[in-house]
């Protein structure tokens, strides 16, 4: 996540740490919304994955079963770095076939039938166990003080770096697509090589930038399937970026659009972080229990509910279905979106780039908070345990503890 986004705990000292040195340093487990009933056309699959994104795991499972990826449902997207236990659903496949799968990086934990496909967001939340390494032992008290403040006021609900890709530019792709600048979008997705790119990725980008699309498609590493697909589409479309881009999966295009929406939300949140637990006149507040949003007409009467964490102000996920705040809150939001060059009313309402939109809480409540020191075969660590609601990022909590001193590196990268 960009260090430009301000911290709620800015006046508290940063705690330097190393993050995700090994898979077991970051463990996340989905808390399901419900359990499968035991009958139906869908098989629910509990998996444990390591070193794979959820999308990659879905593609690998689909290929092994000979089914389209669209027949597989997920409740949440999980990062490749770490160990994740999550639920998938597969349509019209015998549980015994799924149970017998043996795929790299994926372990089948359980299978059971259910009547409906799993949908994004159908989970109660996620539980995390995160081991921070190279943390000074004297910092434990400071970490617990940060956690206490976040428990009272809430965690700024920033979208994490995962939403913006390894190069942090997926939001720029989304902005280019919505502006009709397909050449810039193509260049960001498969071109514009940078010194910091992994060597195979940089080589593929160099080939694509030179319009050697067939060679570029073959050069992309396996986990960059969408980039290879776009290069093949560019070869078939004689380099026409618009024709090629719309040959990508609708889900891939929606990821770029949602990254742009996330970037705009982060900009609004950044302005409101100092008063994240306070309401402005005209705010649209969300009730955490019901998920329903309503216009705040009387801030004085609603402030006590915000103080009890029953409701929270929201920010924009721009699109045609997004409710707009009024009064002071409306002015703040409209000004930030205008400064970013975004006109919500001009965004597409249909097609692969459709922006439905909505509202997102500016803060979230972290629960089951704990911080304990320990030691394993790799040395001492500080283990954080916490539970978060759906759609929130563990990195949003970690950045409040470590500020700009959180270094994310796997052991093999450190040794190199």
| SS elements, strand count | 16
Please tally the helical runs, counting DSSP H or I stretches of 4 or more residues: 14
* Low-pLDDT stretches: 411-416
What is the total number of structural domains? 4
CATH H-level superfamily title of the largest domain: TruD, catalytic domain
Anisotropy-based shape: globular
Largest sheet: 8 strands, mixed
Reported CATH architecture of the largest domain:
2-Layer Sandwich
Helix content: 25-40%
Order of helices and strands: EEEHEEHEEHEHHHHHHHEEHEHEEEEHEH
Estimated radius of gyration: 22 Å
Mean pLDDT value? 94
CATH class wording of the largest domain: Alpha Beta
Distance between the first and last residues' Cα: 24 Å
Structure description:
The protein has 14 helices and 16 strands. It is α+β, with helices and mostly antiparallel strands and 416 residues long. It folds into four domains: 17-23 and 127-154 and 368-415, no CATH class; 34-120, TruD, catalytic domain (Pseudouridine synthase); 170-248; 259-364, 2-Layer Sandwich (Pseudouridine synthase), CATH 3.30.2350.20. The strands form four sheets. Strands 2, 3, 4, 5, 6, 7, 14 and 15 form an eight-stranded mixed sheet that branches. A four-stranded antiparallel sheet has the order 10-9-11-12.
């Amino acid at each position: 996540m960009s260090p430009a986004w301000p911290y709620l705990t800015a006046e508290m000292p940063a705690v330097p740490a190393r993050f995700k040195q090994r898979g077991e340093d970051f463990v996340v487990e989905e808390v399901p919304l419900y359990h499968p009933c035991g009958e139906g056309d869908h098989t629910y699959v509990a998996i444990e994955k390591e070193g794979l994104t959820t999308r990659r795991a879905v593609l690998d499972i689909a290929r092994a079963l000979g089914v389209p990826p669209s027949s597989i449902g997920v409740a949440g997207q999980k990062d490749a770095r770490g160990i994740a236990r999550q639920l998938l659903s597969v349509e019209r496949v015998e549980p015994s076939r799924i149970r017998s799968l043996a795929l790299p990086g994926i372990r089948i934990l359980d299978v059971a039938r259910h009547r409906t496909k799993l949908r994004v967001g159908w989970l109660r939340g996620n539980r995390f166990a995160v081991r921070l390494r190279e943390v000074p032992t004297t910092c434990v008290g400071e970490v617990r003080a940060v956690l206490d403040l976040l428990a009272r006021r809430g965690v700024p609900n920033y979208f994490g770096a995962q939403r913006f890709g390894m190069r942090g530019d997926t939001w720029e792709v989304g902005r280019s697509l919505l502006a009709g600048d397909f050449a810039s979008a193509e260049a960001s997705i498969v071109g514009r090589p940078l010194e910091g790119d992994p060597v195979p990725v940089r080589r593929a980008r160099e080939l694509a930038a030179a319009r050697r699309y067939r060679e570029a498609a073959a050069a992309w590493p396996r986990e960059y399937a969408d980039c290879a697909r776009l290069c093949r589409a560019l070869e078939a479309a004689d380099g026409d970026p618009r024709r090629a881009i719309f040959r990508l999966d609708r889900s891939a295009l929606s990821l770029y659009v949602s990254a742009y929406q996330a970037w705009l939300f982060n900009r609004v949140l950044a302005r409101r972080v100092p008063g994240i637990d306070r309401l402005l006149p005209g705010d649209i507040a969300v009730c955490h229990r019901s998920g329903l949003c309503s216009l705040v007409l009387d801030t004085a009467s609603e402030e006590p509910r915000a103080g009890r964490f029953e409701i929270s102000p929201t920010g924009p996920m721009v699109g045609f279905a997004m409710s707009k705040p009024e009064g002071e809150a409306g002015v703040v939001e409209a000004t930030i979106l205008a400064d970013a060059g975004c006109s919500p009313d001009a965004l597409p309402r249909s097609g692969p780039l459709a922006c439905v939109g909505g509202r997102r809480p500016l803060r979230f409540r972290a629960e089951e908070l704990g911080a304990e020191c320990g030691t394993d075969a790799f040395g001492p660590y500080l283990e954080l345990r916490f539970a978060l609601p759906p759609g929130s990022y563990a990195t949003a909590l970690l950045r409040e503890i470590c500020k700009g001193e959180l270094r994310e590196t796997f052991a093999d990268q450190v040794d190199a």
